[in-house]
Automatic annotation (TrEMBL), chain A:
Protein name (Swiss-Prot/TrEMBL): SufE family protein
Native species: Flectobacillus longus
InterPro entries: Fe-S_metab-assoc_dom (IPR003808)
Domain Fe-S metabolism associated: start-end pairs: 11-130
Pfam entry (one): SufE
Family according to the record: Belongs to the SufE family.
TrEMBL record, chain B:
Reaction(s) this enzyme catalyzes, per UniProt: (sulfur carrier)-H + L-cysteine = (sulfur carrier)-SH + L-alanine
Lineage, highest ranks first: Bacteria, Pseudomonadati, Bacteroidota, Cytophagia, Cytophagales
GO molecular function, one term: cysteine desulfurase activity
Protein name (database record): Probable cysteine desulfurase
Coiled coil residues, start to end: none
Protein task: Catalyzes the removal of elemental sulfur and selenium atoms from L-cysteine, L-cystine, L-selenocysteine, and L-selenocystine to produce L-alanine.
Obligatory cofactor(s): pyridoxal 5'-phosphate
């Protein structure tokens, strides 16, 4: 599936929820299911700045594609991070660098998260794209 | 415990227009009062009235508006003097808030009178505003910074304080009340002991002024700073109290208009107190409205406000402790209406996000007290802090919300 196909799939999943709690329960569930990172990879280098809680992001190449792994100590953030990974991980650096993320808005999450917190997500997306751009060059 | 009404809560709530709104379809519960309190209509009207009828620059014009603005500005100074129990209005300097007041003292008194090898004592309970200015001064001048540790209940360890005191200590700066835990510190004792070794004492009163009666002369504080926005007043204004003799000996903080007596290119002489420390056009409108905030508190009765908040804190603490896995952070014998807690296995941010969706506004995180969080070996807390307009029913909403949050995150 392309990045946009995955985004559309998530939007469809969220369309089934008619109240905020269902959405959050789904996100919390995804947060719990995300494997996360081993302690030795939760380094200063991997920390995303701008989050109220800490988020760690790691990237590596798998063949032609870029794979992301991430973790957070707060489960809701981890759920949102899990969705970002589902959307962006496993695609080519070019696709990732050129992608436009619209699903967060569409599932009503940017509006529910206060600015300081969504800024953390914004920095995470930025960091994922930075990795993609960097891997395009090598 | 008794739930009888100490204040006329419905009447008080009607004074705060912001409270009458829904968040995510639920009636707003505002429990972030230690960050800033909401403003009564009297304060909002004072601001509006000033701009509609009286706006002018002060101490300069001889026209009617300038006289009116100056009169109202100086009337607030007198109200603040009375509020703090200061001897004279010369000792009341308007600032932009607590942070500004502490920086003023560090930059003027600190730079002039504290030297290399001297010591400054702060405490483990401090807000970053009462840590960083002293660190900056210490770094610049080679001064040593000492810290009074905090015990498991969130109180200062006064035995260690006694040991830290010596002739080398030139200044002690501690908060009157901790913003993160609500602990009321024994500042009178802290001051007396510091004076015994010849040190001056700065008190960060940011969290104390909305809950306690303040009497700087009784405390014998050398400096006392507070912010209007934490006591139902406007943002961007506060005051610094300083003993006259100290303020006179201190160099000015900023240069500019208002703070001078005479300027020539050869030499400038400075204005008298308190104007020496008030360079430039001050925040006139907000200073004027601060008086309305002080009068508002007096109209309810400061003792009644405190009693109402204590009742809420007691009720909330009892209810919170019944939640499984919940631990209070800060169980000082003397504390104001701040309930800071952690719930086992749950990140405070998750609690904050979900409570917000339930219409309950709390603060989560480190509360600008990172060293204190480290002391308790936690990432942060969830903090509910109560003000005069909060109710038992709202505390019930918090408790029900926490049960729901726990279930959602389980
Ligand atoms: C104990 C304490 N000190 C200082 C400050 C800083 O106050 P302001 O930001 O109004 O200058 C605060 C505000 O949160 C505080 O709680």
């Amino acid at each position: 599936m392309t990045i946009n196909e995955i985004q559309d799939e998530i939007i469809e999943e969220f369309a089934l929820f008619d109240d905020w709690a269902d959405k959050y329960e789904y996100i919390i569930d995804m947060g719990k299911k995300l494997k996360g990172l081993p302690e030795d990879q939760k380094t200063e280098d991997n920390i995303i700045k701008g989050c109220q809680s800490r988020v760690w992001l790691n990237a590596h190449k798998d063949g032609e594609n870029l794979v992301f792994e991430a973790d957070s100590e707060a489960v809701i953030v981890k759920g949102l991070v899990s969705m970002l990974i589902r959307v962006l991980s496993g695609h080519s650096p070019k696709e990732i660098a050129e992608s436009e993320l619209y699903f967060i808005d569409q599932i009503g999450m940017s509006q529910h998260l206060a600015q300081t917190r969504s800024n953390g997500l914004v920095s995470m997306v930025k960091q994922m794209k930075n990795y993609a751009i960097a891997y395009q060059l090598v | 415990m008794t739930l009888t009404e100490i204040v006329d809560i419905q009447k008080i709530r009607a004074d705060f227009p912001v409270l009458d709104q829904e968040i995510n379809g639920k009636k707003l519960v505002y429990f972030d009062n230690a960050a800033t309190t909401q403003k009564p209509i009297a304060v909002i009207n004072a601001l509006k009235h000033y701009y509609e009828f009286d706006n002018a620059n002060i101490h300069r014009g001889i026209h009617t508006l300038a006289e009116r603005a100056t009169r109202d500005f100086e009337a607030t100074r007198e109200a603040v003097r009375k509020f703090l129990g200061a001897a004279s209005t010369e000792e009341i300097i308007f600032t932009s808030g607590t942070t500004n007041g502490i920086n003023l003292v560090a930059s003027t008194y600190g730079r002039k009178f504290i030297k290399e090898g001297d010591e400054i004592i702060i405490s483990g309970l401090e807000h970053h505003s009462n840590i960083v200015p002293w660190q900056m001064l210490c770094e610049e001048k080679g001064i040593n910074l000492k810290v009074i540790p905090v015990n498991d209940r969130g109180e200062l360890d006064m035995e260690v304080y006694d040991q830290l005191l010596s002739e080398k200590v030139k200044l002690v700066s501690v908060n009157h009340v901790s913003n993160a835990l609500g602990t009321i510190n024994p500042v009178k004792e802290i001051i007396a002991k510091a004076h015994a070794v010849g040190a001056v004492v700065m008190i960060d009163g940011a969290q104390a002024t909305s809950h306690l009666d303040i009497d700087v002369q009784d405390l014998d504080a050398d400096f006392y700073a507070f912010s209007a926005h934490k006591l139902y007043g406007p943002t961007g204004v506060g005051a610094l109290y300083g003993k006259k003799a100290l303020l006179e000996a201190m160099p000015p903080y900023m240069g500019g208009g208002e703070m001078i007596k005479e300027v020539t290119f050869e030499k400038t002489t400075y204005n008298e107190l308190p104007y020496k420390f008030e360079a430039g056009t001050p925040n006139i409108a907000d200073v004027v409205a601060l008086k309305a905030a002080l009068e508002y508190m007096d109209s309810i009765g400061r003792d009644k406000i405190a009693a109402h908040e204590d009742m809420l804190l007691q009720y909330a603490t009892e209810q919170l402790l019944q939640i499984e896995g919940l631990r209070m952070i800060g169980e000082a014998k003397n504390k104001v209406s701040v309930a800071s807690f952690v719930i086992e296995g749950i990140h405070p941010q998750d609690i904050g996000v979900l409570l917000d969706n339930l219409g309950v506004a709390v603060r989560t995180g480190h509360h600008c007290t990172q060293p204190l969080m480290k002391r308790f070996n936690i990432l942060g807390t969830t903090r509910a802090s109560f003000a005069v307009y909060n109710t038992i029913e709202e505390v019930d909403r918090l408790i029900a919300g926490l049960h729901r949050v726990k279930k959602m995150l389980a």
